[in-house]
């Protein structure tokens, strides 16, 4: 069984064939953790998880959307997160590449959601792009001890600080890209019990499908790339990353 630790099946890219795709994902025995990016997508993620037993939900506000949160957004997330199908707060964090929201607003919303996760006893799924220093500083101050650096793009040296916090790391289609040697080196150097697989669909489609929409059925290609990096079988990668996902998300029923 493969576990896609970070997907966006609620995205509009799947509007035309979502139900058909969900049937295919289920038939392949893939478990999906669907991440929210704002209040609307968080609710959609939870609705998907309630309807399909192979999907679990994360709820949270992405840094791109930090400027758009209503005054009661934490109360809304708190209510959603009380559902047993919600396994983490995410995706949350900082993105200084696009700065769709001002940095100070991103930091505030990130800090508030970290406190909510602590209150609820849930792990966090973190998005950090060109913002690792500030991300680490905020995480250290928050006291959050269980998190996932989704689509990790930093160095192996920088990863040590997040490892010290008890964090995990997830890798997707980038592992298959020809020019992604740095990412493959990081995946090779991390403790294997801290690594998860993801698609981040509909984005970051792995080779040989680049240019097409990504979805969880592409996950075997990412597992194959990690097996090559680690020098083990795809089955071993499947077992290791499944165990890691179960441990991180505290899921016992798959």
- CATH architecture term: Alpha-Beta Barrel
Strand order of the largest sheet: 1-2-3-4-5-6-7-8
Terminal CA distance reads 9 Å
Q: Using only CA atoms, what is the Rg?
A: 17 Å
Helix content, binned percent: 40-55%
Compressed to H and E, one letter per element, the order equals EHEHEHEHEHEHEHEHH
Morphology: globular
Could you give the count of β-strands? 8
Q: CATH superfamily, please?
A: Metal-dependent hydrolases
Question: If you had to describe this structure to a student in words, what would you say it looks like?
Answer:
- The chain has 254 residues and is an alpha/beta fold.
- It has one domain (3-249): TIM Barrel, CATH 3.20.20.
- Helices cover 42% and strands 16% of the residues.
- The chain has nine helices and eight strands.
- An eight-stranded parallel beta sheet has the order 1-2-3-4-5-6-7-8.
- Helix 2 runs parallel beside helix 3, helix 4 packs parallel to helix 5 and helix 8 packs across helix 9 (234-249).
- The longest helix has 18 residues, at 103-120.
- It is globular, with a radius of gyration of 17 Å.
- The termini are close together.
- The mean pLDDT is 97.
Which helices and strands, and how do they pair?
Elements: E1 3-7, H1 18-27, E2 31-35, H2 39-51, E3 55-59, H3 73-81, E4 86-95, H4 103-120, E5 124-129, H5 132-142, E6 147-149, H6 156-164, E7 168-171, H7 181-189, E8 195-197, H8 219-230, H9 234-249
Parallel strand pairs: 1-2, 2-3, 3-4, 4-5, 5-6, 6-7, 7-8
Helix pairs in contact: 2-3, 4-5, 8-9
């Amino acid at each position: 069984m493969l576990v896609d630790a970070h997907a966006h099946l609620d995205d509009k890219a799947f509007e035309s064939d979502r139900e058909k795709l969900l049937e295919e994902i289920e038939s392949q025995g893939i478990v999906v953790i669907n991440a929210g990016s704002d209040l609307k997508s968080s609710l959609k993620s939870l609705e998907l998880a309630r309807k399909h037993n192979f999907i679990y939900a994360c709820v949270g506000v992405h840094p791109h959307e930090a400027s758009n949160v209503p005054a009661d957004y934490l109360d809304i997330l708190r209510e959603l997160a009380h559902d047993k199908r919600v396994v983490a707060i995410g995706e949350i964090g900082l993105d200084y590449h696009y700065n769709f929201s001002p940095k100070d607003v991103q930091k505030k919303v990130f800090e508030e959601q970290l406190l909510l996760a602590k209150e609820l006893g849930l792990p966090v799924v973190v998005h950090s792009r060109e913002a690792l220093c500030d991300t680490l500083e905020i995480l250290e101050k928050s006291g959050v001890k269980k998190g996932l650096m989704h689509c990790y793009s930093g160095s192996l040296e920088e990863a040590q600080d997040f490892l010290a916090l008890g964090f995990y790391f997830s890798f997707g289609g980038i592992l298959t890209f020809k020019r992604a040697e740095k990412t493959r080196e990081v995946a090779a150097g991390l403790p294997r019990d801290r690594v998860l697989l993801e698609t981040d669909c509909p984005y970051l489609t792995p080779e040989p499908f680049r240019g097409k929409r990504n979805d969880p059925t592409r996950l075997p290609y990412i597992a194959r790339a990690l097996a090559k990096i680690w020098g083990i079988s795809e089955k071993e990668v499947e077992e290791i990353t499944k165990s890691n996902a179960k441990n991180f998300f505290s899921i016992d029923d798959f």
